[in-house]
Design brief:
Blueprint: H1 2-15, H2 17-27, H3 33-64, H4 69-89, H5 93-101, H6 108-117, H7 120-128, H8 137-159, H9 161-199
Helix pairs in contact: 1-7, 1-8, 1-9, 2-5, 2-6, 2-8, 2-9, 3-6, 3-7, 3-8, 4-9, 5-6
Length: about 210
């Protein structure tokens, strides 16, 4: 149960559903309510396809180009850590991606599906949490199910975006985004340590 909760928190942190709300509100401000619902469904559909592609093919792509998954895990952990630092200390996700949305007409795909929902961190998590050498088919399916559950939560929040935005505001979303960044930085360090352990065949770390 703890492992499933950890996977859920990982995906929740990298996707950051709360931080997506102000992005969605700004990107769809000129559309009526029916069109906003359609855009939300399209954005989640595109995000699901992208992340499922990385669940299925991400590791094979690495194998074809000769990159050990442990090396990818170390590099990915570093990237996630840097990404998390920008969430904590820099311009938060909602603030940064709202600026993107103002200059883009393809709202369902950009910036909603990419990079807001199916973020680089989410793509990386989809690969790392479904590693063939560590997880069986059932475990990978369960991870994919948890990932889709997080996307379902995102969809529900987007459909309730108007009410949620009034409640938390952009400042509230930024605060939550920074908290998610702190959690993500801890998960990133754990991935780096695990990747180093596997790559250099060190004794397993116990926490």
């Amino acid at each position: 149960m703890n492992e499933y909760f950890s996977v859920f928190i990982f995906f929740f942190a990298v996707i950051d559903p709360i931080g997506t709300i102000p992005v969605f509100m700004t990107a769809t401000q000129h559309f009526d309510e029916k069109m906003k619902q359609k855009i939300a469904l399209q954005a989640i559909g595109v995000s699901a396809l992208i992340l499922l592609f990385f669940v299925i093919a991400g590791e094979y792509i690495l194998f074809w180009i000769g990159i050990p998954l442990s090396a990818f895990q170390i590099a990915g952990g570093i990237v996630l850590f840097l990404f998390a630092l920008t969430m904590v200390f820099g311009v938060s996700k909602p603030e940064e991606e709202i600026k993107m949305s103002l200059s883009s007409a393809e709202t369902a795909v950009f910036p909603l599906a990419i990079p807001s929902i199916a973020s680089p961190g989410a793509m990386l998590a989809a690969v790392l949490l479904t590693e063939n050498n560590r997880f069986g088919i059932m475990e990978q399916l369960q991870t994919a199910g948890i990932m889709l559950l997080v996307l379902l939560i995102v969809l529900v929040l987007l459909l309730m975006a108007t009410h949620m935005h009034r409640f938390i505001g952009i400042s509230g979303a930024s605060i939550i985004s920074r908290i998610m960044g702190l959690i993500l930085s801890s998960l990133a360090v754990a991935n780096i340590l695990e990747g180093i352990t596997v790559y250099f065949a060190l004794p397993s770390l116990s926490f």
